[in-house]
Write a structure and sequence with these properties.
This protein is an all-alpha fold. The protein has 5 helices and no strands. The longest helix has 30 residues.
Length: 128
Amino acid sequence: MAKKATHYSETPIEKWNAAHFQAYLADEHVKHYGIQYASAGGKLAERNLIAKYIGTARKPGMYRKETLKAFIDACFTQYKPTQQYPGLSFWFMQEYMTRLLQQAEMESKRAEAEREATDDIEEVADWL
């Protein structure tokens, strides 16, 4: 029996796959802009692009899943729809809003360094 796919909201982000991210994009698009999400280049091409960023079961990605979600959230926060471009697509985000991805990556690395420093301090405190 095949395992039932779970909605992204019921799945920890570290277990998200490209399909979870696509569902998240669709829900956030309706929430922010009140219109349905449309992927540029088709769903399969978008899924492959997302997989390139987050990795697959066989191949590591370029970014942590938390970083990619933070990037998507920042794009939705910053993008102002126009008559000509009433919504976003992941392709548009990664093509024209990469500075937000770099900012999300910097923040992720900063948070990771802080966690490691805290872990080191706790380890020394336990040792003492």
